[in-house]
């Protein structure tokens, strides 16, 4: 690792995002299993290790349920104690030279995961007003912090019409910029992050894509994806949706459309990707390496889902990996070495 005293994070621009490389951290991903509190505070140790291993980016997919009630009547009542834990993560990032990207995985009115929200962000003005309120709060909270330290990723994996998405994103961006005009803002592509949004290129936003295709490799036996039930064990190259998937197929479907977006002056980053722990390890690593090569050639950074957990390099609980004990955690050394290589 480079001497931290002699380097700084790159200065991002919406038309050219740095090749940030790192991980999603999930402490605020959902409210706790026993009530509205989140699972716990962010761990500074994670930031220390991520920096030690030469990465410089974390994405924080968060549920607003962690600091506010799902009851629309109380959507604007915020739990300051929990929000200070988000502040801690931003500060850990600064201390360890890691860019922190804040994402609302669950925003008032929408989440890609169940349970459904009580109102619909895409059609209900009350939900949109609350969503704007939450993002304006974060804009106030981090106003003055440089973009090299913190950025905003507005809505995780939208699934709606382009017209609805443009209207909602425009309102959120206007709300943020009314408070902090220069904040770096990133939006996920449509179709759950996979489709670039050319009609938003003029708003001077970065865009975030995904790296989960084909899903019979990335999500084999993932119980939350019913369409993958009872499939045969994956291979790489793979067969999925009547297509033979190779590195060249990935280039055609997942790289070329986003390269066209880049030509419109939009920076691109891979906000999520990874391979669930039921995919055989050797298949996962071969697939991952092809993805990493493509993104390096494109000049794009990436953020693995996740750091600790079933997709990650720590405590992934794969049946076919000989883990190394690392300060009380189980480390997948092969996956870490592969990620560091690219």
Automatic annotation (TrEMBL):
Q: Name one GO molecular function term.
A: hydrolase activity, acting on glycosyl bonds
Keywords attached to this entry: Carbohydrate metabolism, Cellulose degradation, Glycosidase, Hydrolase, Polysaccharide degradation
The cross-references to SUPFAM superfamilies, in alphabetical order and at most eight, read: (Trans)glycosidases (SSF51445)
Pfam family for this entry, one: Cellulase
Query: Which InterPro entries does the record cross-reference, listed alphabetically?
Result: GH, Glyco_hydro_5, Glycosyl_hydrolase_5
The superkingdom listed in its UniProt entry is Bacteria
Give the enzyme's EC designation: 3.2.1.-
Which residues does the UniProt record annotate as the domain Glycoside hydrolase family? 45-307
What family classification does the UniProt entry report for this protein?
Belongs to the glycosyl hydrolase 5 (cellulase A) family.
Q: What is this protein called?
A: Glycoside hydrolase family 5 protein
């Amino acid at each position: 690792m480079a001497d931290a005293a002699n380097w700084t994070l790159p200065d991002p621009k919406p038309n050219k995002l740095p090749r940030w490389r790192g991980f999603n951290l999930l402490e605020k991903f959902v409210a706790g299993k026993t009530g509205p509190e989140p699972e716990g505070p962010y761990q500074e140790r994670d930031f220390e290790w991520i920096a030690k291993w030469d990465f410089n980016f974390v994405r924080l997919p968060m549920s607003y349920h962690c600091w506010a009630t799902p009851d629309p009547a109380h959507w604007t009542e915020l739990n300051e104690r929990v929000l200070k834990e988000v502040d801690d993560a931003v500060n850990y990032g600064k201390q360890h030279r890691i860019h922190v990207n804040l994402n609302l995985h669950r925003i008032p009115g929408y989440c890609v995961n169940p349970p459904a929200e009580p109102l619909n962000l895409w059609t209900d003005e009350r939900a949109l007003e609350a969503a704007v309120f939450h993002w304006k709060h974060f804009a106030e909270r981090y106003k003055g912090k440089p973009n090299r330290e913190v950025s905003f990723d507005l809505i995780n994996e939208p699934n709606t019409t382009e017209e609805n998405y443009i209207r909602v994103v425009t309102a959120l961006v206007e709300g943020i910029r009314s408070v902090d005009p220069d904040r770096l803002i990133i939006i996920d592509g449509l179709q759950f992050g996979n489709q670039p949004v050319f009609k938003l290129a003029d708003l001077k936003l970065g865009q975030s894509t995904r790296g989960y295709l084909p899903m019979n490799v990335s999500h084999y036996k993932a119980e939350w994806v019913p369409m993958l039930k009872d499939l045969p064990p994956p291979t790489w190259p793979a067969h999925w949706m009547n297509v033979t998937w190779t590195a060249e197929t990935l280039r055609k479907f997942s790289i070329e459309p986003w390269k066209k977006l880049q030509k419109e002056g939009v920076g691109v980053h891979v906000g999520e990707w990874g391979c669930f722990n039921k995919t055989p390890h050797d298949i996962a690593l071969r697939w991952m390496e092809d993805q990493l090569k493509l993104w390096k050639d494109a000049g794009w950074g990436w953020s693995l889902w996740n750091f600790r957990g079933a997709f990650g390099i720590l405590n992934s609980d794969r049946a076919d990996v000989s883990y190394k004990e690392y300060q009380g955690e189980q480390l997948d050394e092969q996956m870490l070495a592969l990620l560091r290589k690219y």
